[in-house]
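Quick one: structure tokens for this chain, please?
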Amino acid sequence: MLDVPASPLRLPRLLLTGAAGNLGRELRPRLKAYCDVLRVSHRRDIGPASDGEEVQLAELSDADQMMALLAGVDAVVHMGGVSTEQPWEPILAGNIVGAVNLYEAARRQGVRRIVFASSNHVTGFYRQDEVIDTRSPPKPDGFYGLSKAFGENLAELYWNRWGVETVSLRIGSSFAEPKDRRMLATWLSFDDLERLIVAALTAPIVGHTVIYGVSDNQACWWDNRHARHLGYRPGDSSDRFRAAVEARQPVIDRGDPAAIYQGGGFVKVSPHGD
């Protein structure tokens, strides 16, 4: 967790959705440093509120619950929804209907900025021997990546038509440390995730900005030059884990689609179970 001496950001009320998810649990204690009140939400019980928190359960697919959830909120860090490849129905409910409900509630409640957890799987069918930027056309690697591409387009619509600003974070692989060779290129440390979210919340003007969520890794497939106005500067790198990761995975099957495409194993997961 970062040391925050004199925070550059102090919002009256910040909403964190998906607070019981993997990254939501990591962000919950961190985001308190940047607001007077952190409203945390999930679809199921996440325990009692701690100091400086409000707990409000809500289903993303329920428009009335989302309207109530965004009342009195100054900004949103949206980590909620489905985060893996699954059959279409849960993705439709959480990531399509849920995203529309979130943005419509933000528009009607006067929320001016959203940090949207998109995904590198929006472009998962680019090859690992390519370097792409945030203006490269989407190549989703499944229903999940497709839903995140929809979320980015939705954010663009709400910016162009109603002035709701969004930073869409195409999160790479955010774990305590990289687990395999692919993650040496895609790894995003928890501290860098926090740095990225703070940059997204504090940049004076963002409109709709897309940025890849990645640390300062020696190997990287993503170019963030079009998002430099956010001021995000990663402080960590996967390089210190390289020797250990390569020792655990000394051989790569170069015919494996997971080793060919940037989406890794997601390009092989069937949402139909076949």
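The radius of gyration is 18 Å.
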